[in-house]
Design goal:
Elements lengths: L1 H26 L14 H11 L17 H9 L4 H26 L4 H13 L17 H15 L5 H17 L3 H18 L7 H20 L11 H14 L2 H14 L15 H15 L4 H6 L2 H14 L3 H16 L25 H32 L1
Helix pairs in contact: 1-5, 2-3, 3-4, 4-6, 5-14, 5-15, 6-7, 7-9, 8-9, 8-12, 11-16, 12-14, 14-15, 15-16
């Protein structure tokens, strides 16, 4: 009976999350793409979709979108004429798969049920999260990246280096690269960490497999760019130049250096405090979290969205801290409640095609330093109070012993 009760809480949480997802799907308006600002990424993915669905005979997309072939291709298999419908289905299936993978991963990590519940609810209600961010703008390549990253972690978490394991890992890495080129960075960081870990623990490493995995992801991206070249070609059309441009922008606009940590804070709210509740192990989650934070800083002007795409690793690292706190049930509830004002769960993003003037309200990176700073101050102060409360409980426990 005790075990039955243990599984009852996660089941109820999952049911609530699915109901929330269905509610948001029903209520959330979708952008009117025909009048949407042409600078939105959706137009590039729609061009890929139309080409793969046979609606057009020529392709004209810009770098780096030209190599992000996986999701438009999958969408073209669902519908050859309605992009919104096709991408909505891809996103819905991806959200369900990701949620299932996350629950499996978090149970493998022995996270507290309350921590799992808090992380799950944040996954579904945060306006910059994997669910709500793409309901108004479904024509995107991002959403399948969540389950690909979660699967990647699951595979590496129990990785021993057998032939079939390497084969599945390579296939996942290549699919992830076709979803988005940043997966090359994820692959390289993960493989280098695994080689270091094996050598540290005294296990032999066949270096040909790690090298082959990284090389194949690079070849996959190169082939995609070769067969689907960008409309503007040249040496400037590369991820390296994108990174250089981003770093140069921080020099030209120094205030971005101050705003950067605030944008990161907005992605996870008060949940960040979980990192201070325990000693962070320097394992795969730590390495990929650092990788994600660095990539988000140089990946363009969508820092908070980019940081959210690493939800499977960052949130797992955070929830470990919540689980390690003296009262994980209470801590999970307090962190979730404190973060809810940042989730904007009561608001729906407007149709920015018809109401472009409202875009400012839904773009964290567009806010002024004062506006972002106000929320950042709230997150830091609230997190500090929760941290002190946890320390006080630790002190009481040690005194009672």
């Amino acid at each position: 009976m005790a075990n039955d009760r243990r599984y009852l809480f996660p089941v109820i949480t999952a049911m609530v999350c699915v109901l929330l997802y269905m509610l948001y799907m029903w209520l959330q308006p979708v952008y009117t793409y025909i009048v949407l600002d042409k600078r939105f990424d959706a137009h590039q993915y729609n061009a890929l979709f139309q080409f793969m669905a046979g609606q057009t005979q020529s392709l004209a997309v810009y770098f780096p979108f030209n190599g992000r072939l996986l999701v438009p291709f999958l969408a073209s298999l669902i519908s050859s004429y309605d992009a919104v419908f096709a991408f909505q289905w891809i996103n819905a299936i991806s959200i369900i798969i990701t949620f299932g993978f996350l629950i499996y991963l978090w149970n493998q990590e022995n996270l507290h049920p309350a921590a799992i519940a808090a992380g799950s609810l944040w996954f579904f209600v945060h306006w910059k999260g994997p669910v709500r961010m793409y309901l108004p703008d479904p024509i995107t390549a991002d959403v399948p990246g969540y389950w690909l990253l979660t699967l990647w972690i699951i595979l590496l978490n129990r990785f021993t280096g057998g032939f079939w394991q390497w084969s599945v890992l390579i296939i996942t890495a290549c699919l992830g690269t076709l979803q988005k080129e940043s997966f090359i960075g994820i692959t390289a960081a993960s493989i280098l960490w695994w080689v270091w870990k094996q050598k540290k623990e005294g296990f032999p490493v066949q270096v040909q497999w790690p090298i082959l995995t990284i090389v194949l992801t690079i070849i996959t991206r190169a082939l995609a760019s070769f067969y689907f070249p960008p409309v503007i070609q040249g040496w400037k059309q590369s991820s390296f130049i994108t990174v250089i441009k981003s770093l140069w922008l921080y020099i030209l606009e120094p205030q971005r250096v101050l705003l950067l940590p605030m944008w990161w804070l907005m992605a996870y709210g008060v949940f960040w405090i979980g990192l201070l509740l325990t000693n962070v192990k320097r394992d795969l989650f730590y390495i990929l979290s650092i990788t994600g934070i660095l990539l988000s800083a140089v990946g363009g002007n969508d820092v908070s969205r980019y940081a959210t795409t690493f939800f499977p690793v960052l949130m797992t690292l955070i929830l470990r801290g919540v689980t390690a706190s003296k009262n994980p049930g209470q801590m999970a509830a307090l962190i979730l409640l404190a973060s809810l004002p940042l989730s904007r769960f009561w608001e729906l993003e407007p149709d920015l095609g018809r109401f472009p003037q409202q875009r400012y309200q839904w773009c964290v990176e567009c806010w002024s330093l004062a506006e972002t700073g106000l929320w950042a101050t709230y997150i830091l102060l609230t997190g500090w109070v929760l941290y002190l409360n946890n320390k006080r409980q630790q002190l009481r426990l040690s005194e009672s012993e």
